[in-house]
Amino acid sequence: MSELAEAPPPKLRLSKPVQQFIAKKRQILIDGKWSDAASGKTFEVYDPSSGEVIAHCARGGKEDIDRAVKAARKAFESGPWSKMSPSQRGRIVAKIGDLILEHLEEFAELEALDNGKPISVARVADVPLAADLFHYMAGWATKLEGDTLNLSVPSTLAPNTAFHAYTRREPIGVVGQIIPWNFPLLMAAWKLGPVLATGCTVVLKPAEETPLSALRLGELMHEAGVPPGVVNIVTGFGEEAGAPLAAHPDVDKIAFTGSTEVGKLIVQAAAGNLKKVTLELGGKSPNLILDDADLDVAIPGAAMAIFFNHGQCCCAGSRLFVHEKVYDQVVAGVAEQARKIKLGPGLDPSTEMGPLVSTTQLERVTGFLESGRRQGAKPIVGGKRHGDKGYFVEPTVLVDVKTEMKVYQEEIFGPVVAAVPFKQLDERLLTQANDTIYGLAAGVWTRDVNKAHAIAAKLRAGTVWINCYNVFDASMPFGGYKQSGWGREMGHQVLNNYLETKAVCLAYPDQF
Ligand code: NAP
Ligand code: MG
Questions:
Q1: Which atom of ligand 1 is nearest to the CA of 414?
Q2: Which of 57, 200, 313, 314 is labelled catalytic?
Q3: Per-domain residue ranges for the chain?
Q4: Residue ranges of the alpha helices (H) in 392-448?
Q5: Taking a C-beta distance cutoff of 8 angstroms, is the pair 116, 109 a contact?
Q6: Ligand 1, residues 262, 488, 489: which to mutate, most atoms within 8 A of Cβ?
Q7: Which residue minimizes the CA distance to atom 16 of ligand 1?
Q8: Which of 194, 249, 362, 405 is the most buried (most CB within 10 A)?
Q9: Environment class of residue 85 by beta-carbon count within 10 Å: exposed (0-12), middle (13-18) or buried (19+)?
Q10: Are 315 and 415 in contact (CB under 8 A)?
Q11: Residue 453 Cα, ligand 2 centroid: separation in angstroms?
Q12: Is 223 annotated in the active site?
């Protein structure tokens, strides 16, 4: 079974800047200034590999949200930001990307410590992808164009009159953003990049479990030249800081990433002033391995699809459908991959899978494992908590899974895959793959490019990966069908989340 590496306490491995950063009580950022919460309260931040307290953060509440929204409103309407040229704005956004890369190691350490993910992964995925998002969005600042329109107003209605009509793309205003803990820095980047490119201002609420990298990013944003009040960051709990942000009457738009359950609360809270809403929610994504797939690629691919980030991905390939001809081989292969994964603290450079993020998630995932066992699913590898320190769960492959089981139907958000054999590629299989309340992502593994595209067209999912999985790029839109969300992150599509379209129509005498 996977070994839990005996590592020295994480503090010993931290660089000076990170040690200093976490040693200081972390405050909230409003109008360019760092301050305590109005209540004076703080909360503890834990190292999920040990359960030890590593930092203290200000516990923001309604009063802080009110102050942050006021600052964002002022910056939107009258500050230097509102007068800045698109090119100046783009340069600032690009500079944020540069600064993230300059501080790559520091961010990788913060993510490994706070979230528990392997530092080796944070270095090559989370941090460079976050930088790339800002670099990509920087280019859009100067390319937010409207159209000129040819109207067909009949001359009987408007005799001797011509029209000059065009559209303008304008920033939506003050934005509230609430993000989860699974990719703390990257989710902050996905959210803040387009806000800045479009000229909006924002109040960001990071997840209580993982607030550290967003706060460090807040410092660097000011170094990059983001004026005070444009980005405000209020740490705290969902009910105390997130809910008043979602309900705030002076917030024009709310963007949320997290559970489908809380997503529904956000929609209700937003109804008060009918603020615009976009949501990036959960998934139970199907991953299909056909009998003609290159199994040398598909097996490690299917393992990575579920075990990457310890299964704490909204797009995790958690329902693995395998053609019966290759089922035994694939299931044994994925189990073998699971067995080889080295569990350990995120800060250990040799760690391949870290702990889950919190005791809550540990209980949730082990609860699912227990329910699977009770309902008759069989773990051929893993199936339980790993060790008794930290929040580790063994990478798990479940077989004998029935469609009515909770482990098949619900999002587990842990390293647990349900494998299901199928007899042939037909309508029934595709119906089964689509038969969930979610529609975030899907995978297909085959050597037949015709089949691959035919299947991709039939899957009701926002992303379909063919012979790959978990490929993300700033240029590729990401988001969900059905209860997986509203709207898209990344790509030029995300800009629509933060722009209003204004139609301007001028009448003039038709003299010629
Ligand atoms: P969550 O509660 O939906 O948290 C996401 C964010 O929403 C956090 O910043 C959270 O704050 C905040 N929040 C919670 N309740 C709120 C409310 N009433 N109003 C406004 N904001 C609120 O997710 P979770 O509890 O951390 O995880 C639970 C499950 O959600 C997971 O097991 C997984 O299934 C799913 N999830 C999905 C994603 C995704 O990327 N789609 C990410 C994370 C989790 P606090 O955490 O600070 O309280
Ligand atoms: Mg939570």
A1: 32
A2: 314
A3: 29-281+488-499, 286-474
A4: 406-409, 427-434
A5: no
A6: 262
A7: 238
A8: 194
A9: exposed
A10: no
A11: 37
A12: no
Place of tokens 């070994």: 3
Whole-number Å distance, alpha carbon 83 to ligand 2 midpoint, is 37
Using most ligand atoms within 8 A of CB, pick from 65, 117, 259, 489 the residue to mutate for ligand 1.
259
Identify whether the C-beta of residue 480 lies closer than 8 Å to the C-beta of residue 460. Answer: no
Distance from Cα 208 to the centre of ligand 2, integer Å: 7
Nearest Cα residue to 4 out of 353, 452, 505, 439: 353
Residue with tokens 């067909």: 152
Q: How far apart are CA 412 and CA 311, in angstroms?
A: 8
Closest-CA residue to 54 (of 180, 204, 209, 214)? 209
C-alpha 261 to ligand 1 mean position (Å): 8
What distance in angstroms lies between residue 280's CA and the mean position of ligand 1's atoms? 11
Domain 29-281+488-499: CATH superfamily, name plus number: Aldehyde Dehydrogenase; Chain A, domain 1 (3.40.605.10)
Neighbouring-strand partners of residue 178:
205, 256
**pLDDT at residue number 227:** 98
pLDDT, tens only, 284-301:
999 999 999 999 999 999
What's the maximum distance between 2 C-alpha atoms anywhere in the chain?
A: 86
For the CA of 180, the closest atom of ligand 1 is 5
Atom in ligand 1 nearest the alpha carbon of residue 262: 3
pLDDT of residue 13: 76
Burial of 349 (0-12, 13-18, 19+ CB in 10 A): middle
Q: Which ligand is nearest to the CA of 237?
A: 1
Whether 314 sits among the annotated catalytic residues: the reply is: yes
End-to-end CA distance of the chain: 85
Nearest atom (ligand 1) to Cα of 364: 32
Residues 6 or more apart in contact with residue 417 via CB below 8 angstroms: 302, 306, 311, 317, 318, 319, 320, 334, 396, 397, 398
d(CA 416, CA 394): 8
199 CB under 6 A from ligand 1?
no
In angstroms, the Cα distances linking 274 to 62, 253, 254 are 19, 9, 10
Say what the pTM is.
0.97
Segments of the chain with pLDDT less than 50: 1-3, 11
CA distance 457 to 476: 17
